[in-house]
Write the structure tokens for this entry.
Amino acid sequence: MNKNGIKKFSEKEGTMNKQTKHIYWMVVIAGCGLVGTCLGLCVNVAGLFFTPVASEFGIGRGSVSATLTVYNLVHAFTGLLAAKTVLRFGFRRTVLFGTFLQTAATFLLALCHSVLPMLLLNGVRGFGSGLIGTVMVTIMLNYWFNKDNALMTSIALGFAGLSGAVFSPVLSSLITASGWRTAYMVMAGVILLFNLPALLFPIALKPEIVGREPYGGVRQADSDQQTVTAPQKISVSMFLVLAVFAACAAGNAALPPHFSGLAESCGLASIGALMVSVCMVSNTTGKVILGAMIDRFGARISVSIYTVIIAVSAVFLAFSRTAVILVGAACLYGLCYSLGTVATPILAREMFPPSQYSNAYPKLAMTTTVSNAVFTTVAGAMYDISGSYTPVCLMMCCMILTSLIMVQTAYRLKGRQAG
């Protein structure tokens, strides 16, 4: 009788464990979908529309790239409200509202005949994405995963690159065959499809809301955090150092949307979409590799290696006029996405205790988005003024080297604070 009882209990426990593992993967898949729309579709392939829209409207690319700037700025500031909004109105309602704004605004972009309504609609898209984008996804993953957090974060955020890599040639071909207006309509449908897992899966912002525990169990630090009666003040010096790192790292991600224009300026327009595609592949794989490297070698060494590779690739993009080299440099340059999205939250997690993380990271995330928005427009304006992307690439090289200095500075500050 005891043997049978033990056997039945074991089978039941195995079934429960299997179901439990499924829900953790549901969280990651939902995060992948949300990041895929907010970054992969709304940002990473946005550059494909710059040239055809500018040509039809008879304006400069810098003016059209301002639509992405508006999107990123609104996305950034709305991200500060993400955690509070989802806790007040619930995960599903927030995702539903954000999805509606993203889908409707993207569809309406196809009906625009001047840049002004496109600016307004990108503001609407940015608001929806800010509520359900990277800030909410990263915080959700921190709640759900105490074990393998860096890996799961890199997988979810890496989907931005994968979706960009897949849909860059698709949308490019669609623009060529049917026009940019049709491409926007198709993009609206893809956004809805990508957000469906977050709408349909039985998940929430925190695992305890659906009766689960974080993967890997509750950390002692998390238990200690519950006894804190007031939030601890963030170290201003540490925050400023990480903010400069985040700004420089995210600013570099403003260059890939201009790859199509860069290729065209070199007389190699045919490789523009390929440059974007290989960059997005590097975007995805680079994030997963960075997560694995951090687990093995630590964030300081891993992030430093990435910054050096990106700096070298920026130099090749600045001076090379050979198709093979430009494509290879674009592939390596795609690693820059890993710094703004994966390295920033992981460095914040290392530099700030749990009681400060939820206060510090949303501000750093806002810094990354604002920086990307500003430098997207700066890059377009610099090209309009100089007629070349060489100054833009050299500026990006200087910025990424600055981020390398900030990483070393952050660890020195951490050592002094520990001492």
